[in-house]
Structure formats: C-alpha cells, structure tokens
From TrEMBL:
Signal peptide stretch: none
Lineage of producing organism: Archaea, Methanobacteriati, Methanobacteriota, Stenosarchaea group, Halobacteria
Protein's name in the database: SLC13 family permease
Superkingdom to which the source organism belongs: Archaea
Organism of provenance: Halovenus carboxidivorans
GO MF annotation: an example: monoatomic cation transmembrane transporter activity
Major localisation: membrane
InterPro entries for this protein: Cit_transptr-like_dom, DASS-Related_Transporters, RCK_C, RCK_C_sf
C-alpha cells in the first residue's frame, strides 16, 4: 500500500464535499464543479494544480467538442426530422402496443448515438403521449424505456454522450490513446440490443401504470377539490376592483383561472380586468380559502356542474384560433435557466400569460403554495394557456410541451443539409482526416452558414451547465494523479479484490462506476474513476484501455434513480413515476449489463 499522505487526505476532503453537494444540490452541480476548480488552485501546494492547469478544462478538446455537438444536435432538432419519424411511428404502429414499444426503443436508441440524447427524449415525450392516446396504453409504460434506450444508444459512437468525449480526452492524456469515432460501436450495439430485449420482455412487465388513460387532466392532477366556480354578489368587496388588486390584498393561496360574464369567458391576461356583480370566477384554491371568500368577500358558490377540461377551454366570440385557451402539461428541462426559481420570483403568470394549476414532481402532485416551490428539472406543470402561449413554451428550451408532437416552424427543407453536415462531421473524424474537435467546430460553421441554426440560436442551444461541469472537473483528474490519490485508491480496491481474476476486477470497476453515477454526475464519476482504473490495471498487468472502457460504459448506465441521468429526470414527471420505480425496473438491467459489458470487453479487447 502506498502511504496515505496529507495531500491525498486533503484531496479526498474536497472530493467528499463535492460529492455531498452533488447529491443534495443546494446549488447547481456546475457551480459545485467551479468551486472544486477554485479550491484546487487555491490549495496548489498540496493539490499540484496551478492556475494554468486549473483553467485548462475550458480549453480542453473534450469541452469544446461537447459544446460543438450541442449546436450540431440543435441543427438536427430544428429541422423537425425526429418529429417526422415520430409521426410515422404513431401512424404505422399506433394500434399495437408491442410494435410501438419496439419502434420507440429503436428510434430513441438509434438516434442517440449521433445527436445529444436530451433533445431526442424531449421530442419523444409528446410522441409517447400521442401513441398512448391512440392505443389506450399508459405513457408510464413507455417513458422509462425511452430514457434507458437513449442512455444506451449514446454508447454507439464517440459523440453519443459528453462522457464518451471526456473519457477519450482522459484516455489520451493518461495512456496516449484517445477513442476513435467507432472505437466501441461493436460493444455499444451489443449493450443496446441487450437493453432493448430486456425492456421489451421482462422490463415491460415490471413498469407500473402510474398514469391512467381515459382521465381528463383535471382528474389526473387531482384538481377536483381545488377548482371552484363562485359568483360575485352585488355587495361584494371585490366589485369595482381589478383582479390583481382584489387578490393582492388577500393573504390566500388562490388564482383566478377564468372570468365568465354574460356567458362570455375571459382568460389571461386577467390582472387588469375589473370585477362586476354577477361575474363568475373560476378559482384555483383549497376548501379553507373558499370558505374565507364566501364569509368575508361577498362571494357565493355557483350552482353549475363541476369544473372540467371543457370548462377551462375558453372560447370567446371573435377570438383568434391561437388565442383560445386549453390545458397542457409542460415539463421543466433539466438544464433550464429557471431552475431554483419559483413561479412567483419568475413572474411566470405575467411573463407567459399562463396559469399554473398544479405541479407534479414524480408521483407527487402539489396544489398548495406552488408559487413558493423552487422549480427542479423534471417538474411537470399543469398549465392553462392559449395556443399562442403554448407555441412560445414549445419553442423555449427551458420547457418541453408534453402534448405537442409537431410544431409549424420546423425547417423541414433543411433536413438533407443537416444530415449531410453531421455525416461529414462523423466521416471526417472516423477517417482521421480531421480530429473530432476540428470537424465538430466546422460543423457549427456549416450549420449556421446553411441556415439550419440561426446565429442567435447558437448560444441558446448549448447546455452551459454541462460545459462548466466538464471544465471544472477536468483539473480534478489531474490532481488525483499528481497527489497519488488515484494510485492509493487503486491499491485499496486491489487489496479488497485479492484473489479475483482480472475479468472480475474489470466487472467490479464497471459496477462500482455504474452505482456512483446514479447519485452524482456521469461526467464526475468518469473523472474520478478513470485514473483509478488505469492505476489498477497497471498494478495487475491488465490493459488499462479496457479498464477505461469499462468505466466509460459504467458512467452512462444510471438505471437506478431518476436523478442519475438527465433523460431519467425528463420522464420522471410526465410518467408520474415514484422514485423507486427506476430501481424496480433498472436494477435487473444494471446487473445484466454488468455481465454483458464485462464479457464483451474481454471477448473483443481481452484483458
């Protein structure tokens, strides 16, 4: 055993604090990563990371390549290609549950090898809802498979995930061997096929039906007790005041969803609408607040039928079609700029002319004090809004509109051009005519020059949290080497694995990486484990490249929790899943992939 030096102990303290912050997320994980970077530089005498090395992650080929691939993926997304394929699947396989499952798995897994899997899943959520409406099959049965297939599909090529690109950079630095474009495609196909077969057989039996088909959104979100119609009496204190003034003075959790006057419905914007006697107000509030209104504000319960989806579909005389109101589910994207904000601090209602009726976080539906809840990635909001607003939300990268499969402003005519660009990027790198960094940056220029991506869309298309996460964590790998922490951890693992053969040690590295990536970022687990894997392989005389591949594949199989991978978080709310559903479906798959991946590594590359 090498000595446990003060330098190693200090680095472990930094890593331990970072891991805790990654899990509990008091601040975004990219900010934690930048904090790690700063700590390493400030403590240079012990960590060995000087300022130049500390900021080198921002100029790393891995970071810049990932940035370029975000823009190229946006070019494909903007053409609407995935939506066209989704429509075709809905038309062709909408009548068969099994065929639609296989088609969805094929689309999700196949495309994720070449474009970022986050936009793939973002498009597939509304596609799954469309399929579910046609077949009567719960979307819960399809959304976890979509996420898992997209995750596994990312292992088909070098550019499939940011983790692959980061691992290639680490491999080049540690052993002088980066990944080629199709370095592990053979194994990636084996892993993807294994996952698809499992999800189409055993997995589909384990997935619960959380969302019941045939329910209106009002019922699905449990709104029956929270939507009420009241009539404004002649002597009401609210008469003559605007809606905004009336409710600003009341300390109650309530929103006016709709105002009905002389059989004419008025919806957003309602803030400046003056209240008159006889007006019917549709309120979102609880029973205690309703009693307060009736007793103190001169309101009476309306004698009409309960509020339904149709009640809230406002149709005013002379109203333009895209101004008509309806209910829709929108999902907060995992990388959204609004994360950590509240509906109140974001002025959501005023900014979007939309009213949030309920918030679903996994299997929990929240009705009370929603405005004070900090928004998280994967939160699903039940929103009443006009078609115009829904189109705005659908074009906003912060949101995924769960019921919208197609949009009118896709650049369908650019599909051949966008496909040609991504083929050129992949081909030039695969044939080693240009490094992947150069070909991907050229891809950005080509996407903008051909109109696939507009100049103002370039920066918005990049998930900057991933970029800062990579830049912040890359120096951590350097510190693990320079302090001897990687060597020490490798020795500990090998002592614990005494008597085990090299393939079994390889399998343990895969499994351990897969477990920790379920609670921390996949990129963080790769940065932590790859230096350790290289040291361990060297100690037992095994091929370090194979151990790097094991860690790379393990880092992209976060099957056990909804927080381990972005695509899991994206389907968490729309599927109405409980936290434990991912463990229930993913644990057998995780163990199966541990065996298949380890065996594939040994058979293809040896140990």
């Amino acid at each position: 055993m090498p000595p446990l030096t003060p330098e190693i102990l200090l680095l472990f303290v930094i890593i331990g604090v970072a891991l805790v912050l990654f899990v509990i997320e008091p601040v975004p994980i990219d900010i934690v990563a930048v904090g790690v970077l700063v700590s390493l530089i400030v403590l240079e005498p012990w960590t060995g990371v000087d300022p130049e090395t500390g900021v080198s992650g921002f100029a790393s080929p891995a970071t810049l390549t990932v940035l370029a691939m975000f823009v190229i993926s946006e070019g494909i997304r903007r053409t609407g290609l995935i939506n066209i394929i989704g429509n075709e699947i809905a038309e062709r396989y909408g009548s068969s549950q099994y065929k639609q499952l296989l088609a969805v798995l094929g689309l999700s897994g196949g495309t994720a090898g070449f474009i970022n899997n986050t936009p793939v899943v973002a498009v597939m959520i509304p596609m799954v809802n469309t399929l579910s409406e046609r077949t009567g099959i719960s979307p819960s049965k399809l959304l976890i498979p979509v996420s898992y297939a997209a995750m596994l599909g990312g292992m088909l090529t070098l550019i499939g995930t940011s983790t692959n690109i980061l691992a290639s950079d680490l491999s080049a630095r540690l052993i002088g061997r980066p990944f080629s474009m199709f370095e592990f495609t053979q194994l990636g196909v084996l892993v993807l096929v294994t996952g698809v077969v499992y999800l189409a057989t055993v997995g589909r039996l384990l997935i619960p039906e959380r969302i019941k088909m045939g329910e209106e959104l009002i019922e699905e979100f449990g709104m029956a007790e929270y939507l009420t119609e009241v009539v404004v009496a002649e002597d009401s204190h609210l008469v003559g005041k605007t809606v905004d003034q009336s409710f600003a003075e009341l300390d109650v959790d309530a929103d006016v969803i709709q105002l009905i006057r002389d059989e004419q419905a008025f919806t957003e914007p309602l803030a400046r609408k003056e209240i008159r006697p006889g007006d019917i107000l549709v309120l979102r509030t609880d029973q205690d607040s309703i009693l307060t209104f009736i007793e103190t504000e001169g309101l009476d319960l309306a004698p009409d039928a309960p509020v339904t989806d149709d009640t809230l579909r406002a149709e005013q005389a002379g109203m333009e079609p895209d101004a008509e109101q309806r209910l829709v589910e929108i999902v907060v994207s995992p990388g959204a700029s609004i994360l950590g904000g509240t509906l109140e601090s974001l002025s959501f209602r005023d900014q979007y002319d939309a009213t949030v009726l309920a918030l679903r976080r996994g299997g929990e539906v929240i009705h009370a004090r929603m405005d004070e809840r900090k928004l998280r990635g994967g939160d699903t909001l039940l929103v009443q809004a006009s078609e115009r607003t829904i189109k705005r939300l659908a074009n906003d990268r912060d949101f995924i509109v769960a019921q919208e499969l197609t949009l009118p402003d896709f650049r369908y005519e650019r599909i051949p051009v966008a496909l040609a660009i991504i083929a050129a990027v992949v081909g030039l790198a695969a044939l080693e005519i240009l490094p992947i960094l150069v070909s991907s940056l050229a891809g950005i220029v080509a996407m903008v020059a051909t109109g696939c991506v507009k100049p103002e869309e370039v920066y918005a298309s990049v998930d900057w949290s991933v970029i800062f996460l990579l830049a912040g964590l890359i120096p951590l790998g350097v510190a693990m080497e320079r302090t001897g922490a990687a060597e020490w951890l490798a020795a500990v693992i090998l002592v614990a694995a005494t008597g085990l053969s090299a393939p079994l040690v390889l399998g343990l590295f895969y499994l351990f990486t897969a477990l920790i990536t379920n609670v921390v970022s996949n990129n963080a687990s790769a940065v932590l484990m790859i230096p350790v894997a290289v040291e361990a392989a060297s100690e037992i005389g095994a091929d370090p490249f194979v151990f790097i591949l094991a860690v790379t594949f393990g880092a992209s199989t976060a099957m056990l929790t909804p927080i381990g991978y972005q695509t899991n978080l994206m389907v968490y709310g729309p599927g109405g899943y409980k936290f434990t559903d991912f463990m229930r479906v993913g644990a057998p798959l995780q163990l199966l992939l541990a065996v298949v991946t380890t065996a594939g590594l040994v058979l293809i590359w040896g140990v």
